[in-house]
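In this section we walk through a basic example: taking a raw amino acid sequence and producing a predicted 3D structure, encoded as discrete structure tokens. The instruction is simple. Fold the sequence below.
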Amino acid sequence: MESFIFNNNKSNKKQTMFANIAALSIIVLQLLGQLNITGANSVGYWNHSLQEGKVTLAKGSRVAVAREDFVQYMWSSPEACNIDTLNMKENKYITLSYYKGKDKGCTVDLLTDKKDEIVFSAVLKHYSGDGIGGCLNKDDTNSNVLPFAYSLTNEEVKKFHNGPLFANGACPDCEEGCVKKTGLELRWTYLKGPSGREWPLLVTNPIATKFVNFTAGKLFMGEGGFKIVSILKINQTDPKFHFHTPMNTSYFNHQKSICMNNLTENILSPSTWEIVGTRPDPIMTRLLVFHLLPQTASRKMTTKVEDLVTGKKYVVENEHPNGPKCDFLEISFDKRNYRLLTVSPITSTSKKPTLPTQGLPIIQQKTAPSSKSATKSPSKTTITKAKTIRTSTTKDSSGSLLLVVIIVVVVIILVVIVIGIAVYFVSRKDSGKKEKGAVRPNK
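The resulting token sequence is shown next.
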């Protein structure tokens, strides 16, 4: 009987090596799966996920219903907007208040049933018995300016806090050149007729441009002050910037140069994104992300007489306004078409918001939430149950490192494969030598 002795380590080493490579590959693929390599962007106050024009809401997203929901949202971060919560049950609007102390801008997430259009009321309020001249300057459009933007990712909106995006090339009477991409703004002023009657005006224009629209505001006077109201609609009718004013007429002040070359491309599109996955409201299935921008986002606009034929023309200066002078500038969304989106539950750790010293009817409504629902500390806000963290930085901030991470991972995989191949051939060579020295017993 003839018997042979073989070295079985060769087969075992190969199996172990490939098993290790397979296990390492699985781990690497799992790590890659946790990274944002799908092209999704973070949008809105609560960092929802936007991909290919559709949005997946953050975990725990729900509709704000009770007054406490609105108050907790306002206390959740300095980036939250101030919302008028006075008489919430009777109030038919979600009203965002803008005032001189709110100098960093803010963001709200709104559910809506409107597709690619934005409808709101623009309101100016002032609590003084001096009439509209108490805070409005005649023929001056720089004292009360409210710049805003919409439909931007969290990374994009940061770029608009110091003004619009400018293109290469000069535009006449535009000190910073032609505008490449911009949001919109509201300006309030008034005219005085020959009879002495005062006419409030709302001026609307893309930020840092001279594409100016005038609308007569509806004036409400009282013993404690006054307010001016205009209803506006932004849609995608060509040109993309188009205000409809159902209650009164409006007109454009045409200029030879408007600081833009393409009205369709240079102005932000009023897009609302379709919600996929969990929907807090069965009817309002789209998301509008709306930003009130700081005064630094705007530019002063003055007029000068060009000649007797063309008359006055606008000049956009490289200087931002320093207002507003009136107590409150507001944007109000009708609850029939909009709902404030919040998350549940909220554990607030932000400092108390800064409030103006005038406009008592608004101030009185903003009281601290109970100690059970919120605690104060100038830090960040953590959404405990949903495990969503609200900080001043967004998920998009990791995008700049994503390519580096992917390259490093790919290099690691290649190195592992090369090492595996080298080990394979070395082990094969060693096993071959051992086979030659195998013991063959005698018969």
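Looking at the output, two observations stand out. Residues 9-36+404-436 form one domain. Confidence is low (pLDDT under 50) at residues 1-7, 355-401. In the next section we compare this with other chains.
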